[in-house]
Design goal:
two-stranded antiparallel ribbon, 1 helix, mainly beta, twelve-stranded antiparallel barrel
Length: 238
């Protein structure tokens, strides 16, 4: 199936989902939300994780202010394919703190690629650090991301240095009728990823069209070749 047909099918499916009412739930002094999504491909840091097929995701997240910082915890699942696994689950938690125009975030995420055999399950644990500069009432933002992988998963090893760390710089600008964003990321010792995207919210649904360019650094990269992707995604809070 060509990419254009996949985009049409994904749009049609989410058209049914988008008729569901939009709501947040107040729980334990905080806010609970459920987010559903569809994307024409599941691309994670430049790597196709679902064999060039549409992916479907569902996530639940709880947020609460603790006074000094804000706390969040959540769980997500998305369609993924690999060596006898058919989805990717993730559990995550973290804290955020906003000081004037700068928001700092420290998070922990565990990703589990769950297969049909117990001995095939594998996990990755990531420590995530973010800084975002977004002046009040300004139409733009600039962010930095640094991720340290702690355990497990499939890792390449080049000259004794494992590709554990990921770093990214990103920026966005709200043009009112749509939001444009760009980012440059580097998976240590493995690949570089450039992303350009435009997004629009309509009827409580977020629509995003992204161009992703991923270049591998060596032949042992998680990429089997340099790749370019065009990804169309939709998400909605329920």
């Amino acid at each position: 199936m060509n990419r254009f047909k996949k985009l049409i099918i994904s749009s049609a499916i989410l058209g049914l989902v988008a008729t569901t009412s939009h709501s947040h739930y107040e729980v334990l002094g905080g806010e609970f939300e459920i987010i559903g999504g569809i994307q024409s491909q599941y691309i994670s840091k430049g790597v196709d994780e679902n064999s060039d097929r549409p992916a479907y995701s569902l996530a639940a997240k709880f947020e609460r202010s603790l006074g000094v910082v804000d706390f969040y915890i959540g769980y997500s699942t998305i369609t993924a394919t690999g060596d006898d696994y058919n989805r990717e689950d993730a559990r995550f938690l973290g804290i955020t703190k906003k000081i004037n125009s700068i928001t700092a975030e420290v998070g922990l995420s565990e990703t589990l690629k769950k297969g049909n055999r117990k001995n095939n399950n594998n996990n990755d644990v990531d420590f995530i650090y973010k800084l975002t500069f977004e002046p009040e009432k300004a139409p733009y933002s600039v962010g930095l991301v640094y991720t340290v992988n702690d355990t497990g998963g499939s890792k390449t090893d080049t000259k004794g240095i494992k590709d554990k760390n990921y770093k990214e710089i990103n920026a966005s600008y709200d043009f009112k009728f749509l939001t444009a964003s760009a980012s440059y990321g580097e998976q240590q010792n493995d690949r570089n990823i450039k992303t350009f995207a435009v997004s629009k919210s309509f009827m409580d649904t977020d629509f995003t069209l992204s161009y992703i360019n991923a270049d591998r650094k060596h032949t042992e990269s998680a990429l089997n070749k340099n790749r370019d992707y065009i990804v169309f995604s939709l998400s909605r809070e329920f």
